[in-house]
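Record 1 of the preview.
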Amino acid sequence: MKSMTGFGKAESTSGQRKIIIEIRTLNSKQADVIVKIPAAYKDREPEIRNELINRLQRGKIELYITMEDAVESTATQFNEAAVGNCYRQLVDIAARNHIPLPPDILNSIVRLPDMLKPEHQEPSEHEWQLQLEGIRQALQQVNDFRRQEGLALMEDISSRIRLIGSYIAEIEKFEPQRMETVKNRLRQNLVEHVGENAVDQNRFEQELIYYLDKIDINEEKVRLRNHCTYFVQTMNEGDGVGKKLGFIAQEMGREINTIGSKANHAEMQQIVIQMKDELEKIKEQILNVL
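->
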């Protein structure tokens, strides 16, 4: 089982460029991919997105690719042809319209768009392969991170599942007392309102059996235990079980709620509240399971 939280980083060097790749993942119901890469690689973005989704499946996935150049290659270079062409046009316009040019006209021109040479040349296929290899290395780190987080989640969730199982056993201790209490209360109410001599014992026994059957929780306990067992089995199936675990947790919640509504017993209802508390904590953890 994997968590959806992960981090991976890879670095490589191509000529005078240092390529840094970082991938971060968080929990999300679907694959929510954010890719921030140099403009020269925008045409590769669909390929990168497919690689991320195929390897990570689901979650909020953020990939950042940055490039750091050597000091000597980062000096600003102006596009001389563009600067000269712009200057000549402005001089011609000013002369024809008798407009004096300001002394800092050149400073204004170099601030215009496209006055600088492109920061990087077109990337080579070799450089792209280096990036792709770096992405895969970072993805491997993310998956390793996710497995470690998944193991921690399994330990925490498993302990809470065992705790719910122990609460079921605690509830069973009160079952005989609860049934006896219900019988006595029904008999007492009937005697008070009808009179002991007027009670039809056979009819009373029939109604009592019907009522006790309505508040019996044996089926709910069996189903809840089965859900707990199935939950643990599902966790051990591997990755991609988060949604399935969520569905099982919903079924567990239904059985716990039914037990609580049928209990009609203070101590049992307190235990049901504890079971609900553990189940809510499990649901919170499941949100981060892949």
